[in-house]
């Protein structure tokens, strides 16, 4: 358990998967938590109900991370809904389009970069405007930034790799204000995006040292550590929670 009492957090893409698990973990540790979603209103409401069952404040905000104004606005809306301040931003919302490079359409290139890169940039920028000392920006990138084990990952790996440079620059930009920025690289994690019983699962399992998929909760526990006070001297860094995928 990480002591998050009295802290407020926004998790983008918090209606399902890693984002939902992270939102619930931060709430169980004592934070009031807002989540964004693009389409899954009912799922986001259910996450809020579960947050509220822990006794914490929960807020669901519809905001498409692929729209720059909505992505930035969500940070301000979350801070306002949670009492005027935001301590933790988890940039989790992301999309993947995989396939041979010739088959990736230009609209797909624009959409993936808009959600995975520009959405993170503008949300982090907005967070910098509302965060005080002790603020935390935690960005979910991917094990595909460390090792691309086969074809089909050009667009996704490019989009996620941009977050590594952004993170280092954010750490330098915000360090003087006592705000940290870190990146988490999940390996194969059992979610709707990458189901453990999906057609690509066996190959991914074989690439891990542990021989299994990870759970969303196993990513959430690393995010919780980085969000807590004990991680106060950790910034500009990258952390893999990938079952040894990069080893
Ligand atoms: P899921 O597809 O299971 O869930 C995605 C979440 O993000 C949903 O809550 C979804 O909301 C939300 N979302 C998607 N697009 C947008 C958008 N444009 N604006 C706002 N919210 C959006 O994904 P995962 O939980 O698996 O992945 C979470 C993050 O982890 C992503 O960034 C992904 O790239 C990364 N990752 C995942 C890995 C895995 O194996 N699962 C491995 C490495 C990285 P809605 O319900 O409304 O669609």
TrEMBL record:
InterPro entries: KR_dom (IPR057326), NAD(P)-bd_dom_sf (IPR036291), SDR_fam (IPR002347)
All copies of domain Ketoreductase, residue ranges: 7-192
Stored SUPFAM superfamilies: NAD(P)-binding Rossmann-fold domains
Pfam families documented for this protein: adh_short_C2
PANTHER family given in the database record: SHORT-CHAIN DEHYDROGENASE-RELATED, SHORT-CHAIN DEHYDROGENASES/REDUCTASES FAMILY MEMBER
Family: Belongs to the short-chain dehydrogenases/reductases (SDR) family.
Protein name stated in the entry: 3-oxoacyl-ACP reductase FabG
Source species taxonomy: Bacteria, Bacillati, Actinomycetota, Actinomycetes, Kitasatosporales
């Amino acid at each position: 358990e990480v002591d998050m009492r009295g802290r407020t957090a926004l998790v983008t893409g918090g209606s399902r998967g890693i984002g939902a698990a992270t939102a619930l973990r931060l709430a169980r540790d004592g934070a009031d938590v807002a989540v964004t979603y693009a389409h899954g209103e009912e799922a986001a409401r259910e996450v809020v109900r579960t947050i509220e069952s822990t006794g914490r404040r929960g807020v669901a905000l519809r905001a498409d991370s692929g729209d720059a104004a909505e992505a930035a606005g969500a940070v301000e809306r979350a801070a306002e809904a949670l009492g005027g301040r935001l301590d933790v931003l988890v940039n989790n919302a992301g999309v993947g389009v995989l396939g041979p490079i010739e088959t990736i359409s230009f609209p797909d290139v624009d959409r993936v970069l808009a959600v995975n890169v520009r959405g993170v940039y503008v949300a982090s920028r907005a967070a910098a405007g509302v965060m005080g000392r002790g603020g935390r920006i935690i960005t979910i990138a991917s094990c595909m930034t460390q090792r691309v084990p086969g074809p089909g990952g050009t667009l996704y790996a490019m989009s996620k790799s941009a977050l590594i440079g952004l993170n280092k620059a954010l750490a330098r930009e915000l360090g003087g204000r006592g705000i940290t920025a870190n990146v988490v690289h999940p390996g194969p994690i059992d979610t709707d995006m990458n189901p453990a019983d999906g057609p690509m699962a066996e190959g991914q399992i074989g690439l891990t040292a542990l021989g299994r998929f990870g759970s969303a909760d196993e990513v959430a526990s690393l995010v919780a550590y980085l969000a807590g006070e004990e991680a106060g001297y950790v910034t500009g860094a990258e952390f893999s929670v990938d079952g040894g995928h990069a080893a």
